[in-house]
Task: structure prediction
Amino acid sequence: SAVISQKPSRDICQRGTSLTIQCQVDSQVTMMFWYRQQPGQSLTLIATANQGSEATYESGFVIDKFPISRPNLTFSTLTVSNMSPEDSSIYLCSVGQGIRTDTQYFGPGTRLTVL
Amino acid sequence: GDSVTQMEGPVTLSEEAFLTINCTYTATGYPSLFWYVQYPGEGLQLLLKATKADDKGSNKGFEATYRKETTSFHLEKGSVQVSDSAVYFCALSDSGNTGKLIFGQGTTLQVKP
Result:
């Protein structure tokens, strides 16, 4: 399975600021995804990070709030912009090599607290 | 759209008890089904998966069988340990072949010695 790292592992930020989260994989992967896990809740997909093109966002998530980059097949970033306390969550990236039958592997997550 | 429903927790068991966590799904196609586990303070780990009807996924003493007729994928373990205490998520791959996963709400398991 792929080894996935995320930076930072946790952060405490002030309202109105932005934070960029990095996701690094130890091998080339086809699919990369960003999820949000609000306190005590399940995972919600934010977007699919597409290599070389704009990310595909899920309903309720917009590029201005969560800009995503994916410059190559091993790296992606998610920015949480103009943060509010409601953005306090764990943000996880995941990777997969294909669709449907393939397995997604998750990074350790970034725990974000917004004051 | 596709969805996953898990039994509500928390589930509290004594060590060596039998575990069942129910999971049912709604999907327009033929999804793959997964169980992920999240230990305290950690990310998600794949526990097991099944890709077609009647497949049984198994790992670390956990099992789940893909039941198309009942649209279920219940997680079972014959004898739980304190170290199994975690949050368990049932998930399916969405029918649109996008590679996305749709998760259930998660079930917290606490095993007491």
Remarks:
- The two ends of chain B are 41 Å apart (CA to CA).
